[in-house]
Structures are given as structure tokens and as C-alpha cells.
Specification:
11% strand, Rieske Iron-sulfur Protein, 4-stranded antiparallel sheet, 2 domains, 359 residues
């Protein structure tokens, strides 16, 4: 192999092109430079520039009007009424207002940069950035140049309309927070108290557990081993949406499961909260309130599909994985004289997400 390598090296060193053979020599790629500058209509025609300026600040003020309309729609179509038409109009018109407000800001900003700001090309050589005085002065000068080129300091109408549009675009979002904490009234004295609202549900002593949503009472004997049933209070099925059906269901919804009695690891104070291996837990996740609806029969784990919190049904629905901060509240149950499952009482702790006032 060494002799063959030496022969190849000697052949390469002694090779010369024959007299009739043309050898192509390529030149390095030349810098194409910047294309010729093409002036915009707004650079050549002052009237076109004025029209562009009017267009931009009109779009910004349109954004302000759309934000105000979103707030007005929130009040004109109160979602608290419970009527389907009001809920639809509330979502539709608030969404249109917020969407138009943000769209107008975006279109106005793009039109500003394309038609009004400086259109000259610049070449900026790279240089080392250091914390010297000269560097800081150059940075300040860069901001001055940007202000001059964009016209931000000179075109006060555009600047002020942009500020107004940006400020107004926040107002609809802030307004929507109003619905998260309704004010109390003589008819609803605890409307603004989350501790009270989440500490009390429809469940009362002797109230039958019923299938969701039809409201059919559930017999203990009808539950098979390993089953999981979605449950509501029996009287809930008789409520209409106008009477607060959704609000009450959101708090009182329960998941009912049947295990072997010996599989349950119950504490002494909860020994009578189950019936013959049947347990009932709030379906509302203690993380952010999503519905816990996935039951793994073999491991006896409940899973919240939103953020993957997992609860062990055999040990008081304690958290075994995920961001939930506490176990699911348990509904104490027993049976009546006819064999139907009934509640012993309401939940003994607030249902739903953990929050700092709950204690």
C-alpha cells in the first residue's frame, strides 16, 4: 500500500495539462451591491404623504372606537342574565370589538412603516460593543436618528393616536374581569364572596345522587365493581338555565366509583363517608377547576385532562402527580330505606381550585 500511495503522489505532482486542453478559471462571486433606490409615492407627492398620515391616525382612532364598543357590548348584553341570546351576543360583539381594535393597530403600524417612515437603505458595519462613553453616545444618537427617520417625535397626531389606541385596547380585557367577581345584592348577599360560594353547594343531607344529566336516582345495587358514574343532585335536573342550573352544577358535580371495600384506605373520621366500597368525589379539579373525568380502573387513579393532575381514589383522592395542591373534596354518602344513594351532608370543604382565602 505504501508503494501505491507514493506512485499516486508522484503522478499528481508530475501532471501537466496538454496544450489543447482548456482549463476553466472561475472568478469569486462579486457583491451585487444594493439595488437602485426606488422612491415611494409618498416621498414624491406631499399630498400622498398627507393621505397616508390621515389613514394611519384614522386606523388608530378606529381602534379606540372598537375598544370602547367592546366595553359597551359587555354592558349591553349582560352574560349574567343567563339567556342564550345574551350570551351569544356578548361573546360575538365583545370578540368583534377586541379583534377590530387589535387589527386596526396592526394595519396602522404596518402602513406607517411602509408609507411614512424613512425609506433610505443603510449599511451598518459590525463593531465591538463595549461600555465606553463613545458607545453610549452612539446609542443615544441611534435613538435620535430613529426618531428622526420614523417621524415619531414630529408627527404628534400619529403618535398620540397610537398611544390612545394602545391604552384603549387594554380596557376591554380589564372590563371582562368584572364578571369574575360579581357584586353582592339584597337577593345575592354573598355574590362577591368566593369562600362562601365555593364552600356551599346544592348537596344536603338525604338528597339522592342522580345520573347526569337526566336526573335518574342511583341505586347502590346497580353500580358494578370498577364503574365510574357522573352524578348530580337529584333536584338539579329540575332547574332551568335561568334559575342557575349551570352555576349550581359547576359546583355540585360528582364522580361516583365502586371499588372493593378492602381497597379503600380510609381515615377514622371518614370511615362512614363511603358505602360498601362506593365513594363520591368532587369532579372539579383542585388546580384550576377543570373537570376530572378520566378514571383508570386498574390503578384507581383519576386524571385531570387539562394539566395531568392525578388523584388516588383508594386514599381519599390524594394528589399523586401534577400541579394540584390538595385532594379532591369527598362527598359523604350512604343509602336510604329504598336502597338509593344519598348524601350525608354537603362537602365539608370548598370545592374547586385552591385559593389563599379558602382556610
Amino acid at each position: 500500500m505504501a508503494h501505491e500511495d507514493d506512485a499516486l503522489e508522484h503522478e499528481r505532482a508530475s501532471w501537466k495539462p496538454s496544450p489543447g486542453l482548456a482549463v476553466a478559471v472561475t472568478d469569486p462571486v462579486r457583491n451585487p451591491e444594493l439595488p437602485p433606490h426606488r422612491e415611494r409615492m409618498t416621498d414624491k407627492d406631499p399630498a400622498a404623504m398627507k393621505r397616508a398620515v390621515r389613514t394611519v391616525y384614522t386606523l388608530f382612532y378606529l381602534s379606540v372606537a372598537a375598544s370602547i364598543w367592546a366595553v359597551a357590548a359587555y354592558m349591553l348584553f349582560p352574560i349574567e342574565s343567563g339567556r342564550i341570546i345574551d350570551i351569544r351576543n356578548n361573546n360575538l360583539f365583545i370578540g368583534l370589538g377586541i379583534g377590530l381594535a387589535l387589527l386596526a393597530i396592526g394595519i396602522g403600524a404596518i402602513h406607517w412603516t411602509k408609507a411614512i417612515m424613512s425609506d433610505k437603505e443603510h449599511i451598518e458595519p459590525r463593531h465591538a460593543t463595549r461600555g465606553k462613553d463613545s458607545t453610549r453616545e452612539a446609542s443615544v444618537q441611534a435613538f435620535r436618528d430613529a426618531n428622526e427617520e420614523s417621524g415619531f417625535g414630529r408627527r404628534t397626531v400619529i403618535r398620540n393616536s397610537l398611544f390612545a389606541a394602545l391604552a384603549a385596547s387594554i380596557i376591554p380585557g380589564l372590563t371582562l374581569f368584572r364578571g369574575l367577581a360579581p357584586e353582592s345584592s339584597p337577593d345575592h348577599p354573598h355574590a362577591g364572596d368566593p369562600v362562601f360560594l365555593l364552600s356551599h353547594t346544592m348537596w344536603k343531607e338525604g338528597m339522592r345522587l342522580a345520573h347526569d344529566p337526566e336526573g335518574t336516582p342511583i341505586r347502590a345495587a346497580d353500580l358494578t365493581l370498577g364503574s365510574a358514574v357522573h352524578v348530580i343532585p337529584e333536584p338539579l335536573a329540575e332547574l332551568s338555565h335561568h334559575d342557575g342550573y349551570l352555576e349550581e352544577k359547576a359546583k355540585a358535580i360528582v364522580l361516583l366509583m365502586r371499588l372493593l371495600p378492602e381497597q379503600l384506605k380510609e381515615t377514622e373520621d371518614r370511615a362512614d363517608w363511603s358505602y360498601n366500597g362506593i365513594v363520591a368525589y368532587s369532579k372539579v379539579c383542585t388546580h384550576v377547576g377543570c373537570p376530572v373525568a378520566l378514571y383508570e380502573q386498574q390503578t384507581h387513579h383519576l386524571l385531570c385532562p387539562c394539566h395531568q393532575s392525578q388523584f388516588d381514589v383508594t386514599e381519599g383522592a390524594k394528589v399523586i402527580f401534577g400541579p394540584a395542591a390538595r385532594p379532591l373534596p369527598q362527598l359523604p354518602i350512604t343509602v336510604d330505606d329504598e336502597g338509593y344513594l344519598i348524601a350525608r351532608s354537603d362537602f365539608t370543604e370548598p370545592v374547586g381550585p385552591s385559593f389563599w382565602e379558602r382556610h
